[in-house]
Structure formats: structure tokens, C-alpha cells
Amino acid sequence: MPDSIDFVFRFLIFALVHSLLAEPRFKEALRRRVGGELPWYRLSYNLFSLVLFGWVMLAWQSTRVLYLIPGIWNLGMQGLQLVSLIAMLVCLRQTGIRRFLGIDRTDDRSAALCTSGCHAVVRHPLYLLSLLFFLLNPVMTTRWLTLSGLSTIYFVTGALLEERRLLRQFGMAYACYQKDVPFLIPRLRRAPIS
């Protein structure tokens, strides 16, 4: 199998497993099967996902460089990547880094709807910032471009599925939030308040 196909295949396995394990119905079925709560589920899920993503990144090591941003522009793009990582941490801090990592074992079902801070700009700030991180890479290889494309599809699909789950969980409050805040691309100017 060509390295590029192996890489795409591994990414698809990662996306499928990652999505399945994140699905609330899967977690609920697992809770029923074990007969109790799963206090370390989120942490285990994150660690397993990290290992699985590492397996993806081990494929297709030698790829062609499509472009390399030279000099100060390279440094500028790396700086913008750093800014996107810091912004991700700010967003995570707002909703709870410990909960996201799985260190805080509070049940995900009790999480409140967050509509302020990062979430007042777009409904899915972590996906947006992750995409910016990918696209701001000053060294674009065929593997990185493929990863960026696959990740874009995965993030948008994941966000759409998450929207359905959040509508079920929060009902009218989330429907109003959807009307007020853009999905993934921030507005250049705020809409007038009526």
C-alpha cells in the first residue's frame, strides 16, 4: 500500500474511533455494561486518542515540500501558530481545562452551556483555532497538506454532529445561541442588537 494511502487509512481509523468513543450514546451503553460510573473515561479517552494520533503521524514520513516560507515571514507564521495555541488554552480554561483533559471527573452531562468569551466569537473556537494552527504552518509538505484537509473535513463534520447533540442537551437556549453566534468563521463586524 502506498504511504499516502496508508496515512489516509490511519487517519480515517483515528477519526472513526475518536468519534465513536466521544459519542454520548456509546459512553452511556458502556456505563450500563459496566454497571456504574466511568470516572476516568475522559482521561483514558484522551490518552488513547493521543496514542492513536501518534500512530497516524508515524505513517508517510518522507513527503515532498510544497513550499517553505522564508525568513521573517517563517518566524511570523510560527508566532501566529503560538498565538493560536495560547488562544486554545484560553478557550479551554474558560470551559475547564481539567474537565477537558479528564482530570476533573465531573460528569460531562452536567456541563453548562458556555456562550461567552471565545464562544461569543464562534460556536466552535477550538476547531477554528486548530485549523488556523494547521494552515499557518510555514513548511507545507504533502503530508501536512493532506492532514490539514482531512482535519478540516473531520472538524466540520464533528462540529455538525456536536451541534445536534447540543441542541438535544440544551434545547431552545442552544437554538438561540446558534442564531446569534457564527458556526466556525467569525463575523467581521457584530450584527446590530435588535
Structure write-up:
A two-stranded antiparallel ribbon has the order 1-2. It is mainly α. It has one domain (3-180). The mean pLDDT is 92. It has helices at residues 3-22, 24-34, 41-57, 71-95, 97-101, 125-135, 142-170, 172-180; strands at residues 65-68, 139-141. It has eight helices and two strands, in the order H-H-H-E-H-H-H-E-H-H. The N and C termini lie far apart (58 Å).
Helix and strand composition category: mainly alpha
Envelope shape: globular
Terminal CA distance reads: 58 Å
Major sheet characteristics? 2 strands, antiparallel
Key descriptive features of the protein:
mainly alpha, 194 residues, single chain, two-stranded antiparallel ribbon
List the helices and strands and how they pair.
Blueprint: H1 3-22, H2 24-34, H3 41-57, E1 65-68, H4 71-95, H5 97-101, H6 125-135, E2 139-141, H7 142-170, H8 172-180
Antiparallel strand pairs: 1-2
Helix pairs in contact: 1-3, 1-7, 4-6, 6-7, 7-8
Give the structure's gist in a few sentences:
The protein has eight helices and two strands; from the N terminus they run αααβαααβαα. It has helices spanning 3-22, 24-34, 41-57, 71-95, 97-101, 125-135, 142-170, 172-180, and strands at 65-68, 139-141.
